[in-house]
Amino acid sequence: MTTWAPDVLGDDYQQLTIPLGTDPDGEGTVEATLVRYRPPQGPDPERLGRAVLYVHGFTDYFFQEHLAQHFHEQGYAFFALDLRKCGRSLRPGQTPHFVTDLTEYDQELDRSLEIVREQVGGGGVLAVAHSTGGLIVPLWADRLRARTAGAADAGLTGLVLNSPWFDLQGPSYLRSVGTLAVDAIGRVRDRLTVNLGISDAYGRSLHREARGEWDYNLEWKPLTGFPVTFGWLRAVRAGHARLHRGLDVGVPSLILRSKESHFSRKTTDKSDAADLVLDVTQIARWAGCLGDRTTIVPIEGARHDVFLSTEVPRKQAFAEVDQWLDWLNGRLG
């Protein structure tokens, strides 16, 4: 039995709480939140027969209404998942986004896939994921393929990864000696905060109260980001290592990224036309590790979240998605 309730985004959105039981990391009871876009003037989701399941990144949650509207216009029922301890799913006393193993997310991803498929009459689901979500989802798809008759048989039809976090940015020693240190510290002091310094450059480039055009909850997505813990980063580095050994996600993937990175703690005009968070060369380097057919498209002038870019690159990103979907749907018949 699923009971949908009103969502913070307004009348066209509803949310469903997914109970997940006791937190393996000792922070009480955990839940995830599935959001659906269901405008009254649109068709019933079951009549659409296909859906999108969107998964956010770190210091993030679903608020991108234009993303839901675009996929709906392309004939997809739209759903988004706020993972445990993120956005709508964060509960008092919990550490935002904190997990010590990325496989923990399989529980809400599996359940969300089931619910979404029920909503669209057993139709296929396209997974769309951003940044850390772009690491979490391929790892899940690889495990889903391995423990079922295949990702496609489980209902997954493809992946659209928006600036996926495929490796650690920064100097090479952070990916070697630095990772060994993260592993050692993360084992014994998992909630200790990694000293990364504080920058609001990316947040200011996005939020309407600063210099951006987007409005979102700053308690769920603060301008400076949430603190990074050693336990969480250790889990991410384990995920990176698994990706680098090669996955088989079992379905085609489209990867969108900015054409360049620009690391700066100050907000400038360049902040609006480059990835301020990840090293795009690392995305390009490891894209071939997903398995199956992979298409990677650099977007000139895109931000870290290409769908939150300024108008011209944002339109290009959507055009690339639509073109790829035409190919995918032709392949699926």
TrEMBL record:
Transmembrane regions: none
Domain of life: Bacteria
GO molecular function: hydrolase activity
Protein name per Swiss-Prot or TrEMBL: Alpha/beta hydrolase
One Pfam entry name: Hydrolase_4
Domain Serine aminopeptidase S33: 51-267
UniProt KW keywords: Hydrolase
